Structure prediction request, 292 residues.
Amino acid sequence: MNRNTLNLGLAVLVAALAGGAWYAQKQKDAAKPTLTGIAAEGLSSASVQWPDAPEIKLVKQGGQWQLSAPVSARADRFEVLNFSNLATTEVKETLSPEGLDLKQLGLDPPERVLTLNDQRIEFGATDPIESRRYVKLGDKVMLIDDPVSAAFDRDYQDLVAKELFAADEELVGIALPSLSLRKGEDGNWQAEPASAAATPAALAKLAEGWKAASAMWNEAGGEEPQGQRLRFTLKDGAQREFVLVGTEPQFSLYSPTAKVRYQLSKALADELLQLPKPAEPPVGKSPEAPKS
Prediction:
């Protein structure tokens, strides 16, 4: 047998072994049971119920997730992924129903209940050895990796979208404590009161800043605080209001509808609440008079 023939045989053998290993792993992965059998794209509703808190409900409408209870608000697209991840999570172990003490497993009563589409998942205690979570779905008790996520908390504020405005919403009016902006039919913004700082570029930048504004995190809002109101008008005529809670240590806005406090970067306060001052001329020079 010459060297070329030997090398060819070894290559065929390596390819066969690799293919066999890939197929075996694929079969093994396919055999792993998932918690619900719901595909990620098939999830259309979810809820979280704690014994001592209002039920949190989400629904998918037109491809977008919305909170429907206890408030109506756009849902955070990243936090919602935790529900589809739970639906498809791997079941590590299914326990035999014989001799199970549901109370000892924290399932009687359950700590909390999540419902994905029409499947009710009861959450119990964690296994002290591997820190896996006992869950009950129907008459089955299973162990899964503990899903550590703020999306499943008793408070809903992390589920509210961090962006103040949706990508498809268009602002046409902005009313701030010391300045109001209105978008004309020509697409240009006008300010009231007019000032040297209210240049078309500055007004457009201010409006774009508000459209892109996003919180670093949300906090529970509680009772509506005292403060100046910021009012925004959308192209479809809808109104959006926020209460200016403060600018220290973060730029904080309260939403009366979502009942959360958006915590924005402190640096955004100066950019979004006022226009930048016009650049002053160099020392010893006077501003040029406008040309006639």
Observations:
- The CA atoms of residues 197 and 276 lie 7 Å apart.
- Confidence is low (pLDDT under 50) at residues 21-29.
